[in-house]
Each structure stands twice: as C-alpha cells, then as structure tokens.
Amino acid sequence: MKKIIMVLCIVFLLGVGGNNSYASEEQEILGIEACEVPTDVYYFLQSIGKDIIIDVLRDPSCMSITGFSYDNIKIMEPYKVYCVKGEEFSKSEAYLFPVISNGNVLFNIAIYYFEGQLHYSINNELHQELTAMVNSNNVGRVYYNYSEDCEQVNAALIMETDGEGLQPIKVLMDYSDEIYTEIVSRPELTISYPTNGFSINTNTYKRLDMSYCLVLQNNTLCAMPCIATIYRYRTKTFEMTAESLTRLNNQSGYGFNVTTTAGQVGLLNKIMPVVPECEYEEYWGVLTNYVVMHNINNAFPFIFGGSNGSGGHAFVLQGYQLNGNNMRWFYFNPWGDDNATEYHADGAVASFYSKGYIWTEMQHSCLLNPY
C-alpha cells in the first residue's frame, strides 16, 4: 500500500453569514482527510440534507442507528473513498458527507453524478470506524481494497502516523434545532412492527424483516449469498450459507450457472419449497413501481442486477418507500451493505452508491411469477 500515491484533497468550505445552520470552528472534527466540495454538490446537499436526515431518523431502526439525540444533528464536510484493485488506484466519484450526533457518526449521505445530474443515496458504511476518528489527533483516508475480479471487497481505514499536510473534516451544517422541531415537536409518522414477515408495513412504506437472514458473499459468486438470503427468509431456516449453497449446486448435479438470471431462477426454484403459481422467473426491463410493489407486498424478496461500469453485481431488493409517484428501494449488497437508494421516478433507471461504487440498475431481475 505504500507504493500508492495518495491524492491530497483541499478543504473547501463556503462561507455563509447570518444563518445558524452553518457550524462554527469550535465544533467537532473528524480525523479523515477533507476534500473539496464543488459548488453544485454543496447547494444540492443544502437543498436535500435536512429532509434526508428527518426521513432516516423518523425510523432509525431501519439502518440500526443508535447513540444520537434529535437536538444534536450535524452534517460534516465530505470525504472521498479511494479504491484499490491490485496496483491500480483511483478515487470514487461520490462525495460522502457524514451525519454526526453526540460524537457518533450515524450514516453517510453520498452525492454523485449520474447521466449529468446529481443524485444521492444513504449508507452506514464504516460508521463505527469513522466514529473512532471523531476529534482524533490523527488524520486518515478511507479506501476499499478489491480483488482483481471484483468478487471480494474489504473496507479499511488507512491511518497517517502524523497526519502532516492532511486537513481533517469539520462540521459543515448544523441542523440540530430544525431536526428537533420537526421530529420531536411535530411527530408525523408512526411505524408499527407486525409479525407477518415485515419490519415496516404501511400503505406506502414496506420493508421485509430480513435482518436475521442476510448472507455475506465471502469467496463465492455474488448471486450465491443473494439466493441463500432469500432462501433463509422464505423458509425461516438459517443454516444455508453462500458456501454451502455453492457446494449444493456443484455436488448435487444441479450445475446452475448463477452468473446468469436464468441460472439464478433455476436454482431458486429448485431449492425453494413448491408453491403453486408462486415461483421466480426472469424479468427483463426497468423495475416499475408496480413490479416492485407486487413482489414486496407478497413477501417476495428478489434479486436485481447492478453495474458499476466495469462489471455486474447481484443485490437483494427487500423493501420500498413511496413519495407520490417516486420510489426508493431498500437493498442488500452481499459485500456487506444494507441500505437504501434515493427516490426515483416510476420507470426510471435507478442508480445508487454502495461500497465505493456508483451502481446502475442492469434491467434484468429474478422476480415472483406472475408479476
């Protein structure tokens, strides 16, 4: 790793007077290398940041968020993720803004360009490691180390021994008063937790209760942990792993090629208990609101593909939330990311940030039949 030449980012903080939403110099710092904020990214965050935080903190259990108070919520300056594959070194195209409360990093707001437009997603990657860097005397960088075939990823925080020349992250926006007023003084949403397979189940907001059955990829093809995750949820048994499913597929004579959607469908229907008129099949095209709702409403998590520009990857779609005609998805990335996309219009191609990459919906999925 010492052979890698790190690119130094420069702190860029827009000075805005007369507004208590912007932080003073005395507040927390985060010992991660700060980077420049393009003006359009800054104003995009300013337009959406508070609403994103309110949306997440109305139901913090969705992202397992703890250790916060509604009257102490701030957005930090952004950091960038460094991606390493072998000897290749690059920076992610996303800007990650940590949201902090009581010295804890709760989650990141990732802002990135897609087809010339700014988009966002939320994730809680490395929140524990980042929290350890709050008010640290050291300054480090975040990087993801990928295998050459992109089938494995390990996140790590690179620590600089002296931090010389690196600037830490400071508080960018303080929304403590606004968040407290919106959520505590004017509560607007009550979420119930029924025992019918959903952790959230309202008319416009549904999320399957899959926290107990998520399977990591480890040294397998990415579809294997997705299939194993779905199998665990549907059968309520928890022994299946990506490795044991791989052995089953190879040694039983099934031999499904799970790098294809047809192979994923074949293996899922082979191992799943037979339910008449309730099987998986290939679906080609953009995922519409109707298709997503039909599957999730019937308690059918499903596999969809995402592309990062250099390869494809399998994800599990496990929930949705509607805002008018727009929808955001709750997904599981078997690299270890359980998060949500931003809202997108019905019929639009979805994009989202996860594990150092910007992913674009690949328009082929493994869905409930009939859909």
Describe the structure using short key phrases.
371 residues, 6-stranded antiparallel β-sheet, 2 domains, 20 strands, 10-stranded antiparallel β-sheet, 7 helices, prostaphopain b, domain 1
Description:
The chain folds into 2 domains: about 160 residues, prostaphopain b, domain 1, CATH 3.10.500; about 170 residues, Cysteine proteinases (Cathepsin B, Chain A, Alpha-Beta Complex), CATH 3.90.70. The protein is about 20% helix and about 35% strand. The chain contains 7 helices and 20 strands. Strands 11, 12, 13, 14, 15, 16, 17, 18, 19 and 20 form a 10-stranded antiparallel sheet that branches. A 6-stranded antiparallel sheet has the order 1-10-2-5-6-7. It has a 4-stranded mixed sheet with strand order 4-3-8-9, with no helix packed on it. A hairpin with a 2-residue loop joins β3 and β4. α4 crosses α5 and α4 packs parallel to α6. The chain is globular. The N terminus is likely disordered.
Largest sheet: 10 strands, antiparallel
What is the level-2 CATH architecture name of the largest domain?
Alpha-Beta Complex
CATH superfamily of the largest domain: Cysteine proteinases
The CATH class designation of the largest domain is: Alpha Beta
Runs with pLDDT <50, length 5+? Answer: 1-25, 188-194
Mean pLDDT: 81
Q: What is the CA-based Rg, rounded? A: 21 Å
Strand content: 25-35%
Helix content: 10-25%
Question: Structurally, how many domains make up the residues?
Answer: 2
In short:
With 371 residues, the protein is of the alpha+beta class. The chain is built from seven helices and 20 strands.
